[in-house]
Amino acid sequence: MKEKKTFSWPLVFAVGLGFMTTSIFWVHYNGFVPIFLKENHKLAFSIVGFIMTMDNWIALFL
């Protein structure tokens, strides 16, 4: 007879916590890196936008 598999709530919590942490980090990264590039490296808005666009495209393929 087959055993009934149970749901592992601690595993579900750990995976959910990982996704939540990644999402929070990503929002802050996308919010603060353009400010850092603009103010500290004196780049134009168009260059900052290009860098952030390339960063997001590269992240899609990693």
Word description of this protein:
About 80% of the residues lie in helices and about 0% in strands. It is an all-alpha fold and about 60 residues long. It has a domain at about 25-60.
Principal-axis shape? elongated
> Which bin fits the share of residues in helices?
over 70%
Number of helices: 2
Average pLDDT reading:
92
Q: What is the beta-strand fraction?
A: under 5%
Describe the sheet with the most strands: none
Spans of at least 5 consecutive residues whose pLDDT stays below 50 are none
Total beta strand runs:
0
Alpha-beta classification: mainly alpha
Query: In sequence order, what are the helices and strands, one letter per element?
Result: HH
Q: CA-to-CA gap between the ends? A: 43 Å
**What is the CA-based Rg, rounded?**
19 Å
Concise account of the structure shown:
This protein has helices spanning 9-40, 45-61.
Keywords:
single chain, 62 residues, mainly alpha, 2 helices, 0% strand
